[in-house]
Amino acid sequence: MSFSLATEGLSKAFRLHLQGDVRIPVLDGVDFSVAPGECVALAGPSGAGKSTLMRCLYGNYGVGAGRILIRHHGAPVDLAAADPRLVREIRRDTLGYVSQFLRVIPRIGARDIVAEPLRARGVPAEAARARASALLTRLNLPSRLHDLPPATFSGGEQQRINLARGFAADYPVLLLDEPTASLDPANRQVVVGLIAEAKARGAALVGIFHDTEIRDLVADRLFEVHPMQDAA
Amino acid sequence: MSTPLLTAPLLTARDLTLHFGRVAALDGVDLEIHPGEVVAIVGESGSGKTTLLRVLSGLMRPDGGEVSYLGQDVLGMGEAARRRLMRTEWGFVHQNPRDGLRMAVSAGGNIGERLMATGARHYGNIREQASHWLTRVEIDPARMDEVPARFSGGMQQRLQIARTLVTLPKLVFMDEPTGGLDVSVQARLLDLIRALVADLGLAVLIVTHDIAAARLLAHRMLVMRHGVVVESGLTDRVLDDPQHPYTQLLVSSVLAA
């Protein structure tokens, strides 16, 4: 089966030098794969390593062993071994990430935060901002807030800005970390719709969904992440 | 439409070494910076980061090693050639704006002077450019004829940035550009630098001890300690998954606001 994103024998441990060099193994030999048009939900108890796997898939965490293959501009690339500049290019053109929390930039308005990934690809400012406005409106963020910096917005409003930013750029691969955690039922339904549309255009999605009702609506299958025994 | 990020490096340094007496300020430092790339050098005071910036920009000679800029040997070039580079394709933003500005010359003159050094002669055009750049760094162009000594510290720093960027350099060195400023002024300056760098596609090598500033601005990061680069890589990976004991200490010492 062709994949958009896959791992082979992925292992990850943390070594805490400031805490007596304790080593905490989190992932060991994980083989995971997601195909175009598919949404896979990571499952497992709290602390099993779902978020760690997600951060490895984005290149935010390094890996101890194994490969992370992502189809970038048509060819598989090992994200785990990629040069930082190649990781940036993959993140610009191929791989998106919706985190739980918005990292605000001082003085930048919501609309420009959402438009930024499109601007980075060279989309003209007007087109990028129009797309950003349309998504913010669809996620029920009042237009009077679109040009304000979101530092003082509520958790739910900030999450919707993060979602708009993640869905604005039509990434071929999209990672979603608790995308509906702070949302009301109406906005959860909007996210369900956005995910369905992304799948329909052939995007591969990987998500962590605390909300099992939403998870069962959007996920094609579950991937179980098993907690590791204390091997240290 | 989108530009490839994988290009040949602008500046390459190999195995730089410099001792002050028995203290190693640089100990086998390698570094590359590519067009459009923002690279932060972080570390505590005395780690060698400012020395590295001075060596890379040719202000200081190392004991050993090589620096090359687009194939030219920076350490071997004459003072005249280095100055020409610093006037045209390079820029340097100092921590103290007084080191980068001429305090007795008007704001407009500070910007115009650098333009004239690259061959601009038409007075009207130079004034127009100066006015444009003052606006870009959020200084009222009506204050063009005032001397920078009458400006606040934040304004002086913004003027230094305008003076540096007016010639559209390819590579800009910045040494703690927000160092001496109030926190409220720092945020504005950081945001301004971030926007200008992205718009102009500049390569920037920025020395800072401000981890949050590095996260906001830099694509890539080098962590220095005792003259050695102990860790380097993608900014968010170095900060979120630090490997070296010193990087772990540095990251864990930052207070979350």
From TrEMBL, chain A:
Keywords: ATP-binding, Lyase, Nucleotide-binding. One of its GO terms (molecular function) is lyase activity. It comes from the Bacteria. Residues 5-232 form the ABC transporter domain. The keyword Nucleotide-binding applies. Pfam families: ABC_tran. SMART domains: AAA. Belongs to the ABC transporter superfamily. This is Phosphonate C-P lyase system protein PhnL. The lineage of its organism: Bacteria, Pseudomonadati, Pseudomonadota, Alphaproteobacteria, Acetobacterales.
From TrEMBL, chain B:
PANTHER family: PHOSPHONATES UTILIZATION ATP-BINDING PROTEIN PHNK-RELATED. Coiled coil: none annotated. Keywords: ATP-binding, Lyase, Nucleotide-binding. PROSITE patterns: ABC_TRANSPORTER_1 (PS00211), ABC_TRANSPORTER_2 (PS50893). NCBIfam families: CP_lyasePhnK (TIGR02323). One of its GO terms (molecular function) is lyase activity. Gene3D superfamilies: P-loop containing nucleotide triphosphate hydrolases. Residues 11-251 form the ABC transporter domain. It comes from the Bacteria. The gene is phnK. This is Phosphonate C-P lyase system protein PhnK. Pfam families: ABC_tran.
